[in-house]
Amino acid sequence: MFDRYKFTAACLVTLGLHSVAQGQEGVPPGITEPLILAPYVATEAQCTRPPGLQQNLVFVQDNRRDFMEGVGFGLERAAGDRDLTYSNVLSENDAGRMIEQVNALRASATGAVVVAPVDPRSLAPSLQALIAQGTYVGAVVPPPAVTILNAPQYLTGKTLAEEAARYIRDSLGGKANVVLLTHDSLQFLAPRFRAMRDVLGQLPGVTIVADISPTPVSEEGGYQTMKTILLAQPDIDVVLGADAVVLGAMRALRESGKARNDQFLGGIDGEPDAIRAIQTNDGPYRATVSLASSIFGYALGQFAADWLDGKVVPQGLDVLPSLLTRDNIANYQAEISDPAQVWNDKKRRDEYLRMYGGICYDTRSEYLNFAWSSEAEPN
Questions:
Q1: Residue 16 — pLDDT band, cuts 50, 70, 90?
Q2: In whole angstroms, what is the distance from residue 196 CA to residue 268 CA?
Q3: What is the mean pLDDT of residues 328-346?
Q4: Sheet holding 206-212: strands in order across?
């Protein structure tokens, strides 16, 4: 008896297995037990083109933060390049509204949906019904979806921490008081901060003087948390965390007169304010790790078009961390402003994206219904 999880969707199409019968009642649960997906292999095998659906792509967006605006930019560019009608619906962080929006898209036979869920658990049944209907569903991190986008979170944190460690060795004489502004309460982000602790723990001259999650995890939260930390420990050399909270921490350092040009402040997310701070030559903000949202948005738009054309698409998509410093920001900004050029250049694309698994309309019952990560350990 073969293990179905080791077969790609292309194999399943060839064997005629695991397809969703037309008119089947109920919604298949998808793959609920974690598994390791093999690298995606492009195939010429053709599946059925989803019948009765519009040739359109809709982004169901949680809010207007810059990261998600980048996703929409990439999706719209891909839709235009593949002759799909593109639209965007905004949920304004309202989980109930998002459910209503997704249900309306199913009722109108929308061909492809990419979603950034507000509340993944409550939205899941609506997404499952979309998939059962044959609609392409791409998700920014939480399941369920035909294609799940995620970042290798440990690698993301490691990338930033290694740059900080290099700076500590080269510019601070190997010694530093470090503040980690974490978000460990969000389970899928916790590996970022584990990586930071692992890397910095290898430097004998480093002392982590604070390891705390601001409340809220925002610029204001980072500001208030750093003000409290400075009361107990006024001499800070390194601050790491999400860009928003580190920007708040920088404001607190400056207001208290504790900011120095030889400090290392670094964040994750590639926020525009962080990039502007890095480009200030005499400031302490030195690096941000970006997850190029316009480039992975463009990829998801391409997968949506392929799905509607009856092709096999990846089940998992990694967006790889890009370390941005004063030396390389200009080149990065040029690439994210033209995601099609990156997508069409395999070498450049592989620097940003990795693809795993395979699925198409005929094998859509094999959609991922667990929190997929390429960094998951094999059972």
A1: very low
A2: 12
A3: 95
A4: 206-212, 176-181, 238-242, 264-268, 285-290, 322-324
Q: What is the pLDDT of residues 226-255, one digit of tens each?
A: 999 999 999 999 999 999 999 999 999 999
Separation between Cα atoms, residue 321 and residue 102, nearest integer Å: 30
Neighbours of 202 (CB within 10 A): 9
The structure tokens listed for 367 are: 């959609």
The mean pLDDT value for 71-100 works out to 97
Return the SS3 of 213.
coil
Amino acid letter, 137: V
pTM of the model: 0.84
Is 40 a residue whose pLDDT tops 80? Answer: yes
Contacts of 366 (CB under 8 A, 6+ apart): 4, 9, 12, 18, 30, 31, 315, 359
Query: With 80 as the cut, is the pLDDT of residue 298 above it?
Result: yes
Looking at residue 14, what is its pLDDT? 30
Please report which confidence band the pLDDT of residue 127 belongs to, taking 50, 70 and 90 as the band edges: very high
The structure tokens listed for 30 are: 């998808």
Cβ 360 vs Cβ 313: under 8 Å: yes
What value does the CA radius of gyration of the chain take, rounded to a whole number of Å? Answer: 22
**∠ CA 269-171-180, rounded to 5°:** 40
User: Nearest 5 degrees, angle CA 104-CA 108-CA 110?
Assistant: 95
34 to 5, 371, 378: CA distances (angstroms): 10, 8, 9
Residues 6+ apart with CB under 8 A from 98: 60, 62, 91, 115, 117, 118, 119, 123
Contacts with 126 (C-beta within 8 Å, 6 or more apart), sequence order = 99, 102, 103, 106
